[in-house]
Design goal:
Length: 165
């Protein structure tokens, strides 16, 4: 079977399942956004809160308000999506590429200092803790976006190969 691009997968999925292309697009964007938000490591919550969706082009906005419902915030944009226009799922925090692709100091210098009572995962301050290993975030060593998009593509491939929708 020939490999088809992501756009072609969405179109083929729509055709095979009989689900309207706009609906497949919206559900795909929602699935990807939910996946990257969930997979984004949390320290302060800033990186997770900065996932955004736009149509036509991305924008340079960095979200200052940390919100627990990033997907809910972006639903107004997702609801307007129409096939044929480019959709962007993006994050503008300056360190998002480090979270996705690594590049933390290897080995870590001192790590992250947690104040008394401050927690991160299973760790509670005060003290220095190392949250990266081998140059990658220990919470998302394989990134967030790459893994999420690959899972969505595999889902399409399974359906197109004869699996269930």
């Amino acid at each position: 079977m020939a490999t088809i691009g992501f756009k072609g997968s969405i179109e083929a999925f729509s055709k095979k399942t009989g689900i309207a292309l706009d609906t497949v697009l919206r559900k795909t964007v929602l699935q990807i956004l939910s996946g990257v938000v969930e997979a984004t490591p949390v320290d302060t919550g800033r990186a997770r809160a900065n996932w955004q969706v736009s149509v036509g082009s991305s924008n340079p906005l960095v979200v200052d308000t940390i919100t627990p419902d990033v997907v809910g915030r972006e639903m107004a944009v997702i609801a307007t999506l129409k096939a044929g226009k480019p959709v962007y799922i993006f994050n503008n925090v300056p360190y998002i590429l480090v979270l996705e692709y690594g590049q933390y100091p290897n080995p870590p210098k001192r790590g992250t200092y947690l104040r008394t009572g401050q927690t991160k995962g299973a760790f509670t301050g005060p003290g220095w803790f190392q949250f990266s290993e081998g140059g990658y975030s220990s919470q998302a060593p394989g990134g967030m976006a790459r893994i999420t998009v690959q899972r969505v593509k595999e889902g399409f491939a399974s359906v197109l190969a004869g699996g269930e929708a």
